[in-house]
C-alpha cells in the first residue's frame, strides 16, 4: 500500500521546469515573459517568481525554448518531439511507441510527468546515441486512454486516497471529501479521473461506484470488468428496445430466403453452452458429392444499424467469458433466445453452402440468407463418442439428456463423414504451413457459491476439430469471395502478420536447453519446425512454458480492411463470419456480404477501418479480463490449499525471483530470491538460471521443484511460494 501523503503541507510544483514548458507550449506561436507564466501557474510570491526566471534560462540553455526578445520566450519546434502511445511496465519505466521511430522511446519513471499507461502523449527525446535506445521525457498528455480506474480507498476525515489496483499505474488518486460518495475505508471502488494540475503530485478523482469489500467474489469479478471498462449489465433503453423487437418468422420473410428446413441439420457445442450460433447441414448428392452447409445465426436481421441495440453491441464489440459468467455482447433474449439455433425450431440464418467431393475439393459455393430447422443438439462429448465408436448409442454419463440415447443412423453417418473430411482439410492446412497451437485450457469445477473446488484441463478432440475446420472453411471462403472481387470492395479481414524474428531467436535459445531445435532459415522451415516443436513437447514438463513462449513470438491477430493474409492459418484470405452472437466484426461481415450480394457499391474504407481498430482493442481488453478471472480463481483455489505441497516446473527466471507453474493445475506463482534461505542466489541470464554463491546450487528454467503457498493475494491476483526443494531432493 502506498504511503499516505500530507495534503496540509505547502503546495509545490513536483516538476516546475515541465510546468513552465507546458505554459509556453499552450500557444507555440506566442512569446511569454515570466509574469505571464507566473500568472498562468498561479504563482504570486517572489520566491516562486525567481524560480520561474531561473527555469526559463535553464530551458533556454537546454535548447527547449528561445529568447526571441529580451525576457520573452517561445517554444522551439524541434525535431526531437514525437507523439505516440505510452506503455508503462510494472516497475514504472515507460516506453513510447511512435510510428516516426523504429525503436520505442524509453521513459524513466521520473520523466513520466502526468502520463498514465496507454495515454497518447508528446515526448521529448533527449538521448539518441547511435546503437542505444532513445530516451526521453513526457512533455504533454494529448489524450487519456482511460478515465476510470479500480482501487482500494483510504478514507480520512475530509479527503481520501484511492490506491489503484493496476500495477502499471504508479500514482494514487486524491479524492476531496465531497467526492467520496459514501465509500467506506478499505472498500474497492471505481474512481473517475477529474483533473491533474501541475501543482499536484497526484490526480484528483471522484468515486463513481462502490464495488464492495476486497476479496469477496462478486467484488473481484466486478472489479475485473470495471478495470477494463467492460459493462456487466445493459442500459434499460437497450433492454426495452430488444424486448419490443418482432421475433416472429413470417411467411413473407421465408420467401426471401433459401429454405433449408428439410435438410439434415444439427449443432455441436460445449455441454454448458447457452447460445448456439452455428449449425451444420449435410446431404449426399446424386453425383456422389456432398452438400455441406455452415449456418450462422442471422443476427444482422434483428440488430439494425443506427439503433440503440446496435450502438451498444458495437461499443461492447465482443462477449466476455469469465470463469463463472458470460458478459454477453447482446441481451439474453437475443443471444440465448431468438438468435440461438435451438433444436426443433425454425431459425433465420446467414449460410455458406458448399458442394464438396471426397478429396475436399469445392465444386460449388453459395452464400446467402436461409431458414433452417435444427434436428438435434449435441455436446462435444456426444459427437466425440460417435466418432470414436462409429455408433449412435450415447451412454448416460455423457448424454445431455442424462439417459442413454439412440441417435438416428443418418446423423451418425453424417458425423462420421464430416469428421473424415475435416481431418483431410486439417492435413491440407498443415501441409500449407499452418501452425498447430493446441494450448491446454484451464477450467474449474465451481460450487453453488462460484468457488473453485477442482481444476481440470480442456483439450481439443476430433469433435472440436470437426467444427473448427468447417468454421475455418466458411470464414476463408467468405473472405476470398469478396476479397477477389474487382474492383476492390471494402471488407473486414482477420489478419495475422509473420512472427517476430528476435522473439523466434530467443525461443530457439531456450528450447535448445530441453533438447529441441528450431530451423529459422525461411518461412517454410520456421512453420515446419515450430509444429514439430509443439508436437514434441506434448506431455513434457516444459509443454505449457514452450506453448506460451511460442505464442508470444507471434504477432497478434487483428481486424483490418487491409488484407495481408493470416500467417498462423496459412490463408491468403480470412475473415470472421461464424460468431455474430458474440463478435461484432461478424455482424459487420454479414452486413457487407449481403450489401455486395445485392450489388451494392463499396463501403467506406476509413469508416470500417476505424470500426476494425475498435473491435481489435475491445477483443484485447476482453481477453485480459478473461485471463484475470482465471488468475483470480487459481489464486482462490490455491488459498484453500495453502497447507499442501505441490510439484511444479520453473516457468521463468528473473533477477528478482523464480516463477513456478504447478503441474496439476497450471497455477503460477513466484519465489522471491530473498526467500531462498539456503544460500544467496544470483541470476545468470544466459543460463536461464539462478545460482547459489556458496553452494553453487542451481535452479534452471524447466526444473521440477516442490513448492508451498506463502501468500495468496486475491486482490492483486498474485501467488507467492516457498521453495521446498528440487524434485530429486524431496523424492530422494
Strand order in space, largest sheet:
13-20-19-16-15-14-21
Task: Give the number of DSSP strands.
Answer: 35
Percent range for β-strand residues: 25-35%
Cα end-to-end separation: 42 Å
GO cellular component, one term: cytosol
InterPro entries: CSD2, NA-bd_OB-fold, RNase_B_OB_dom, RNase_II/R, RNase_II/R_CS, RNase_II/RNase_R, RNase_R, RNR_Ribonuclease
Organism: Nonlabens dokdonensis (strain DSM 17205 / KCTC 12402 / DSW-6)
EC number: 3.1.13.1
Description:
Strand 6 (120-127) and strand 7 (135-143) form a beta hairpin. The protein is 30% helix and 28% strand. It has 6 domains: 16-75, Arc Repressor Mutant, subunit A (Orthogonal Bundle), CATH 1.10.10.10; 81-143, OB fold (Dihydrolipoamide Acetyltransferase, E2P) (Beta Barrel); 148-214, OB fold (Dihydrolipoamide Acetyltransferase, E2P); 237-437, no CATH class; 463-632, no CATH class; 641-731, Nucleic acid-binding proteins (OB fold (Dihydrolipoamide Acetyltransferase, E2P)), CATH 2.40.50. It has 18 helices and 35 strands. It is globular, with a radius of gyration of 29 Å. The two termini are 42 Å apart. The protein is of the alpha+beta class and 732 residues long. The longest helix is centred in the C-terminal third of the chain and has 35 residues, at 605-639.
Amino acid at each position: 500500500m502506498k504511503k499516505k501523503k500530507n495534503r496540509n503541507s505547502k503546495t509545490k510544483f513536483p516538476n516546475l521546469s515541465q510546468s513552465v514548458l507546458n505554459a509556453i507550449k499552450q500557444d507555440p506561436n506566442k512569446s511569454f515573459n515570466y509574469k505571464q507564466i507566473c500568472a498562468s501557474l498561479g504563482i504570486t510570491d517572489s520566491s516562486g517568481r525567481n524560480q520561474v526566471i531561473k527555469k526559463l534560462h535553464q530551458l533556454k540553455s537546454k535548447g527547449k525554448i528561445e529568447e526571441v526578445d529580451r525576457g520573452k520566450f517561445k517554444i522551439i519546434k524541434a525535431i526531437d518531439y514525437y507523439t505516440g502511445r505510452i506503455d508503462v511496465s510494472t516497475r514504472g519505466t515507460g516506453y513510447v511507441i511512435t510510428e516516426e521511430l523504429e525503436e520505442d522511446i524509453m521513459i524513466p519513471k521520473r520523466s513520466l510527468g502526468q502520463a498514465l499507461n496507454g495515454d497518447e502523449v508528446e515526448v521529448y527525446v533527449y538521448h539518441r546515441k547511435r546503437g542505444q535506445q532513445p530516451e526521453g521525457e513526457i512533455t504533454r498528455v494529448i489524450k487519456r486512454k482511460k478515465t476510470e480506474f479500480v482501487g482500494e480507498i483510504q478514507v480520512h476525515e475530509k479527503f481520501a486516497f484511492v490506491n489503484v489496483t493496476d500495477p502499471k499505474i504508479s500514482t494514487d488518486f486524491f479524492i476531496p471529501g465531497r467526492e467520496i460518495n459514501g465509500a467506506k475505508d478499505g472498500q474497492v471502488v471505481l474512481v473517475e479521473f477529474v483533473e491533474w494540475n501541475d501543482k499536484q503530485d497526484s490526480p484528483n478523482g471522484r468515486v463513481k461506484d462502490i464495488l464492495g469489500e476486497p476479496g469477496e467474489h462478486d467484488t473481484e469479478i466486478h472489479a475485473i470488468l470495471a478495470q477494463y471498462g467492460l459493462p456487466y449489465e445493459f442500459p434499460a433503453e437497450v433492454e426495452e428496445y430488444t424486448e419490443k423487437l418482432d421475433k416472429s418468422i413470417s411467411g413473407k420473410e421465408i420467401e426471401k430466403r433459401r429454405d433449408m428446413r428439410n435438410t439434415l441439420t444439427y449443432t455441436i457445442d460445449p455441454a454448458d453452452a447457452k447460445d448456439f450460433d452455428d449449425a451444420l447441414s449435410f446431404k449426399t448428392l446424386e453425383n456422389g458429392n456432398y452438400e455441406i452447409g455452415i449456418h450462422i445465426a442471422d443476427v444482422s436481421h434483428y440488430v439494425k444499424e443506427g439503433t440503440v441495440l446496435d450502438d451498444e453491441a458495437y461499443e461492447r464489440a465482443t462477449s466476455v467469458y469469465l470463469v463463472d459468467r458470460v458478459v454477453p455482447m447482446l441481451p439474453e433474449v437475443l443471444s440465448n433466445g431468438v438468435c440461438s439455433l435451438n433444436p426443433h425450431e425454425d431459425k433465420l440464418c446467414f449460410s455458406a453452402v458448399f458442394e464438396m467431393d471426397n478429396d475436399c475439393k469445392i465444386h460449388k459455393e453459395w452464400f446467402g440468407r436461409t431458414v433452417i430447422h435444427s434436428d438435434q443438439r449435441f455436446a462435444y462429448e456426444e459427437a466425440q463418442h460417435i466418432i470414436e465408436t462409429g455408433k449412435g448409442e450415447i451412454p448416460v454419463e455423457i448424454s445431455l439428456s442424462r439417459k442413454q440415447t439412440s441417435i438416428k443412423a443418418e446423423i451418425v453417418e453424417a458425423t462420421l463423414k464430416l469428421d473424415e473430411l475435416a481431418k483431410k482439410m486439417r492435413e491440407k492446412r498443415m501441409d500449407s504451413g499452418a501452425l498447430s497451437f493446441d494450448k491446454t485450457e484451464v477450467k474449474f469445477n465451481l460450487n453453488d457459491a462460484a468457488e473453485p473446488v477442482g481444476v481440470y484441463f480442456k483439450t481439443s478432440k476430433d469433435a472440436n476439430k470437426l467444427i473448427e475446420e468447417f468454421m475455418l472453411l466458411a470464414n476463408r471462403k467468405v473472405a476470398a469471395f469478396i476479397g477477389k472481387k474487382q474492383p476492390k470492395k471494402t471488407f473486414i479481414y482477420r489478419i495475422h502478420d509473420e512472427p517476430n524474428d528476435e522473439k523466434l531467436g530467443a525461443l530457439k535459445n531456450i528450447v535448445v536447453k530441453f533438447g529441441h531445435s528450431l530451423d529459422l532459415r525461411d518461412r517454410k522451415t520456421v512453420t515446419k519446425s515450430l509444429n514439430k516443436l509443439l508436437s514434441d513437447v506434448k506431455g513434457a514438463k516444459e509443454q505449457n512454458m514452450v506453448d506460451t513462449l511460442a505464442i508470444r513470438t507471434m504477432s497478434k491477430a487483428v481486424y483490418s480492411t487491409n488484407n495481408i493474409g493470416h500467417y498462423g492459418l496459412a490463408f491468403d484470405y480470412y475473415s470472421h463470419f461464424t460468431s455474430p452472437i458474440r463478435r461484432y466484426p461478424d455482424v459487420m461481415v454479414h452486413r457487407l456480404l449481403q450489401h455486395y450480394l445485392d450489388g451494392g457499391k463499396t463501403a467506406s474504407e476509413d469508416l470500417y477501418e476505424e470500426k476494425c481498430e475498435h473491435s481489435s482493442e475491445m477483443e484485447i481488453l476482453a481477453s485480459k479480463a478473461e485471463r484475470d478471472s482465471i488468475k483470480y480463481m487459481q489464486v482462490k483455489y490455491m488459498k484453500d490449499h495453502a497447507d499442501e505441497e505441490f510439484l511444479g516446473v520453473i516457468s521463468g527466471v528473473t533477477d528478482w525471483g523464480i516463477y513456478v507453474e504447478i503441474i496439476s493445475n497450471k497455477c503460477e506463482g513466484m519465489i522471491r530470491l530473498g526467500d531462498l534461505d539456503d544460500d544467496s542466489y544470483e541470476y545468470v541470464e544466459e543460463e536461464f538460471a539462478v545460482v547459489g554463491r556458496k553452494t553453487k546450487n542451481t535452479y534452471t528454467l524447466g526444473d521440477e521443484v516442490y513448492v508451498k503457498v506463502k501468500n495468496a493475494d486475491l486482490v492483486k491476483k498474485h501467488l507467492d511460494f516457498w521453495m521446498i526443494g528440487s524434485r530429486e531432493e524431496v523424492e530422494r
